[in-house]
Write a structure and sequence with these properties.
The protein has helices at 11-14, 31-41, 47-66, 100-106, 153-164, 181-190, 218-223; strands spanning 24-26, 71-75, 79-83, 86-93, 111-119, 126-132, 140-145, 172-179, 195-201, 204-205, 211-212. The chain contains 7 helices and 11 strands. A 7-stranded mixed sheet has the order 1-9-8-7-4-5-6. Strands 2-3 form a two-stranded antiparallel sheet. By secondary structure, the protein is an alpha/beta fold. The longest helix has 20 residues, at 47-66. α2 (31-41) crosses α3 and α3 (47-66) crosses α4 (100-106).
Length: 226
């Protein structure tokens, strides 16, 4: 008897952009992931449900991000592997803090730094306001956390901060929930050796520089009760 086939996604959901930069690694477009994103995009989703869906996707992102870290062979009573170096997380406040729980669930006792970046109203450029990072961050692989990638300005500035603290590009993995082609290209143009693991690549930015279709203000929906 033939095995039943898995149901396929509608064509408009299954199709990923074909011209993604080579440092971008989207999660596989499964029915589960599409359903979670559908819940996140629905403006009627309650905060409790939004947090649940977001935490599920964040866990998938962290697990895939860890797959991109180098490993070393370990010979005990059997042949295995272990991560090549120490790991830390760095969240771009405040929305990136929503991803910290998923990282802690996958990496026990992981150290986490924080970066606060906001747009300068006079120049419209991303400006660093605060950074608290592990003292030995230059010796660690960094998982940079921020759920939304629109123009890429904040993420690019955060990567600049990490590099200024001695972290090489190739040791940075940017974990992101929803991105767009424009932001991905900007990231690649600025830092081509930084790997990007994203759950979903949306259509584009609109004239107001919002992601289409997007899911609203992630930080407000995750942290503000209603």
């Amino acid at each position: 008897m033939a095995c039943p086939q898995k149901p396929s996604l509608p064509a408009h959901l299954a199709q990923e952009p074909s011209d993604l930069p080579p440092n971008t690694h989207p999660l596989p477009r499964t029915g589960q992931l599409a359903a979670l994103l559908t819940g996140l995009r629905n403006k009627e989703t309650s905060r409790g449900a939004f947090v649940f869906y977001a935490d599920r996707v964040n866990r998938l992102l962290v697990e895939e991000g860890l797959n991109h870290l180098p490993v070393l062979e370990k010979c005990l009573e059997y042949n295995g592997v272990g991560f090549e170096g120490k790991i830390c997380g760095v969240s771009i406040m405040r929305a990136g803090e929503s991803m910290e729980a998923g990282l802690r669930e996958c990496c026990r006792a992981v150290r986490i730094g924080k970066i606060l970046i906001q747009r300068d109203e006079e120049t419209a450029l991303a400006k660093l306001f605060y950074a608290k990072l592990p003292e030995d961050i230059a010796d660690r692989y960094c998982l940079l956390l921020d759920p939304m990638l629109a123009t890429g300005g904040s993420a690019i500035k955060a990567i600049e901060v990490l590099i200024d603290h001695g972290v090489p590009q190739e040791r940075i993995i940017f974990l992101n929930l929803v991105s767009c082609p424009e932001g991905l290209r900007a990231m690649y143009d600025a830092y081509p050796q930084v790997k990007i693991v994203t759950a979903w690549v949306d259509e584009a930015l609109n004239e107001q520089k919002y992601i289409v279709p997007g899911l609203g203000d992630f930080g407000d929906r995750y942290f503000t009760s209603r």
